[in-house]
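Reading a protein record of the kind used here takes only a little practice. The integers have meaning only within a learned vocabulary of local backbone shapes. With that in mind, consider the following protein and its fold in token form:
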Amino acid sequence: MQVIETLAEGLKREIKVVIPAADMKARLDERLIDAKDKVRINGFRPGKVPVAHLKKMYGKSIMADLVNELVRDKPSEIISGRGEKSATQPAISMTEDQAEAEKILAAESDLEFTLAYEVIPAIELKSNEGIKVTREVVEVTEDEINEQILKIAESARTYETKDGKAAEGDRVTMNYLGKVDGVAFEGGAADDAELVIGSGRFIPGFEDQLVGVKAGDEKAITVTFPTEYPAANLAGKEAVFDITVKEVASAAAVEINDELASKLGLESAEKLKEIVRGQIESQYSNVTRQKVKRQILDQLDEVYQFETPVGLVDAEFENIWRQINTDLAQSGKTFADEDTTEEEAREEYRKLAERRVRLGLVLSEIGEKAGVEVTEEEMQRALFQQLQQFPGQQKEILDFFRNTPGASASLRAPIFEEKVIDKLLTEISVTDKTVTKEELLADDSEEGEKAEKKPAKKKAAAKADAAEGEEAAPKKKAPAKKKAAEGDAE
């Protein structure tokens, strides 16, 4: 077999592979001899079929299998033998001339094919001693815990039917039908809808007009949808809701005690307090982790500058660009609405894609040199989490990961990346700083961005904290639309 390099330009490589016809014939003869003792052909005793007869009957199909195997298996062997790593799946090209192909299958002509690929650049790892990060820490106060428990208690409170008019804090059960310009719209109707006055769940102005209603009342409520309302066909429009009040109920007093804990499936109020504390600490810890990680990535981005494989950048850009256009379509906006142009946005997101690919390669090299590994147990746990996120689609998800080449990498990559970050945290300077909740949650520096970016660009930038690996699992089914009368925050 001859391996001839025909192009070495930057990260691009092209390799011509030639397997002589004599070698192909020898491989074919081996397969025929092996098949001789296995095939059963009428008129011949087992193992007595002449090789020449087998070749006449099956030679072409066996040779076709040989060609497919060589073209499938040799590229990785050749690239590895050259001490290279291909950034993407190599593009393989062969002759398209039918007559030449027939000669190859007859072992009368050399098998030739070409590999075109980009190599992953060699990365010389540098010392991490200069990397310094500040880890913001929030102390969870008793007041914050009690505030959160109070919200839980309020959401679990009971209501009792009352006579008379509805007031702030009362729950109104009603039927409603919304219309714009006299025409009912999708999602604008419901029966037995429950709404607590003052909860802010419905469009601004709707709940205020419920004050004073009582069971049996019929009323027309006129409101105007916010200009930023997610449904573009309703944004800024005036709507009239015809309502029929079925019940008015007053809220029972909120009490934080063991009885409340029991309703929530817990043994005591102390256990409820313990769980709430843990949840708040976990939420803050996640934010702290992401901000520390962002600092690490920013500094690695400054330290490592090298040419990135175009194929990987193209794929990353397409992932980002697809999400951006989906976000714009769902919000009913254009690039002009976000104070930018498509050309400017493409340029920014291209830079973001290059950064993510470069950092992904750096983290991969750091992890490989440090011996970081993802265990089978960790992979199984990640798969289980995927199954939990998509109820009712478990079979589809399992089939996806079983049947899609490379799909498991989407589970492995985030785990590997976090373990590399953990490794780096043991080698760099980390300074803890106690901050307030407001300071921790303030997001004044989008990932890797030193200057303020336009609104449209923040969505993708926020996702750039994970520099390696994208979710490749099947997407969630679109959630049922909220009732059109409900506001953005419930």
